[in-house]
Amino acid sequence: MLLSLKMSYKATMGEDYKADCPPGNPTAGNNSDQDTTKASEDFVDPWTVRTSSAKGIDYDKLIVQFGSSKIEKDLVNRIERATGQRAHRFLRRGIFFSHRDMNQVLDAYENKKPFYLYTGRGPSSEAMHLGHLVPFIFTKWLQDVFNVPLVIQMSDDEKYLWKDLTLEQAYSYTVENAKDIIACGFDINKTFIFSDLEYMGQSPGFYKNVVKIQKHVTFNQVKGIFGFTDSDCIGKISFPAVQAAPSFSNSFPMIFRDRTDIQCLIPCAIDQDPYFRMTRDVAPRIGHPKPALLHSTFFPALQGAQTKMSASDPNSSIFLTDSAKQIKSKVNKHAFSGGRDTVEEHRQFGGNCDVDVSFMYLTFFLEDDDRLEQIRKDYTSGAMLTGELKKTLIDVLQPLVAEHQARRKEVTEETVKEFMTPRQLSFHFQ
Q1: Which of 6, 224, 374, 385 has the greatest CB tally within 10 Å of its CB?
Q2: Would you say 282 and 289 are in contact if contact means Cβ atoms under 8 Å apart?
Q3: Neighbours of 324 (CB within 10 A)
Q4: CA angle 422–288–239, rounded 5-degree value
């Protein structure tokens, strides 16, 4: 805790803490990194992500704040050895940057012990955007390389409680979003997608775990973790237990029978971590292993990493329903640039990849590491102009979205029903 406080002090003040030297008022001429002062302004919870830096959230500070572990090169190498596959670009580039107990999952896997994957989606609108795909693209890779079952929670109950939606709207968004998720290529024999509104009434095992979790978490705890107030509806206060329950294998008796010893691995954005810190605290008290986690960074809005993507603002992101023409227009008009004001200045001083949204998007979706590094060098040196960088991104995104749309068209209502039917899955657990 002391080390954490010292790191926070250094991030805010730009200098090491000295016990016998109290801090003075920083002068206007202090040339410590301006971005360090914004660290204290970063705010992350499951509903709000706020930063004042064009570079985005300070993830090193967030690791300290949340108490997770950084994904180091050694862990990436170990995943490659265990799976016999090259690490996904999200791991190679630090997009999945933090973890809890991933080494424990690898220990189990190497000893032929089972684990399963759990991720989710809060269906708040009919159309998903590129940022929503990130955890599913990575989860699909994890399912393929580890050959394990996967459960996907559609938290339509949460969206009903937090948004101005009817239950029918929330469930209809579940079905539409499920089509986009299925289009990522998940194996129907190893994947169960479930709606909270639907599944809770079908599975006594799931509801029993919800009740056990509820019994072991106090109102003061959820207020402290999630910032609930006395005026929040009781549905919000009890919801964290519903998101926690899929972390325990006997919530799915048709898949795992009554086994309680199968560990869960949860790939998710770091803003969902508070739910699972609570879950990990409760797990040993109700006889379950703690879930392990892999955390991703946030996908930036087109207007810059310090702004939030919004379903109500169609220009804040590339949506999976966008046409090639719309993608080109959005990138050219709205993607925040790290380039200079004039071509002459840009050629002389180069662009800033740290704040350029087009380059950020390429780190997510351009597979070729060598090409990405060359683009970084060319843009930073001024050899590549902003317009050329944007064109490169457009050329990557247009076929990616078009291919997704083609796969989604093949997903019928019947396919969704198959994925969402409680059933036995195919895997090789002993």
Answers
A1: 385
A2: no
A3: 13
A4: 65
Looking at this protein, which amino acid is placed at residue 146?
A: F
Q: Closest by alpha carbon to 297, among 130, 4, 90, 47? A: 90
Name the 3-class secondary structure at 414. helix
| CA distance linking residue 225 with residue 277, whole number of Å | 9
254 touches 422 (CB < 8 A): yes
* Amino acid letter, residue 160: Y
Q: In degrees to the nearest 10, what's the CA dihedral of 413, 418, 420, 421?
A: 130
What are the respective helix, strand and coil percentages of the chain, to the nearest 5?
50, 10, 35
Rg (CA), the chain: 22
* Adjacent-strand bridge partners of 49: 44
The pTM of the full predicted model, rounded to 2 decimals, is 0.87
227 membership: H or E segment, kind and range: none
Strand partners, 117: 150, 265
Q: Contact 115/306 with Cβ under 8 angstroms?
A: no
Q: How far apart are the first and last CA of the chain?
A: 41
Q: Where are the beta strands (DSSP E) in 122-183?
A: 150-154
d(CA 74, CA 384): 34
Distance CA 236, CA 9 (A): 34
CA-based torsion, 17, 22, 25, 31: positive or negative: negative
328 to 99, 322, 372: CA distances (angstroms) = 35, 10, 20
Walk along the chain (430 residues) and give the pLDDT tens digit of each residue. 777 676 666 666 667 777 666 554 433 344 444 444 444 467 776 666 667 677 778 889 989 988 999 999 999 999 999 999 999 999 999 999 999 999 999 999 999 998 999 999 999 888 899 999 999 999 999 999 999 999 999 999 999 999 999 999 999 999 999 999 999 999 999 999 999 999 999 999 999 999 999 999 999 999 999 999 999 999 999 999 999 999 999 999 999 988 999 999 999 999 999 999 999 999 999 999 999 999 999 999 999 877 666 666 788 899 999 999 999 999 999 999 999 999 999 999 999 999 999 999 999 999 999 999 999 999 999 999 999 999 999 999 999 999 999 999 999 999 999 999 999 998 876 5
d(C-alpha 315, C-alpha 55), whole Å: 20
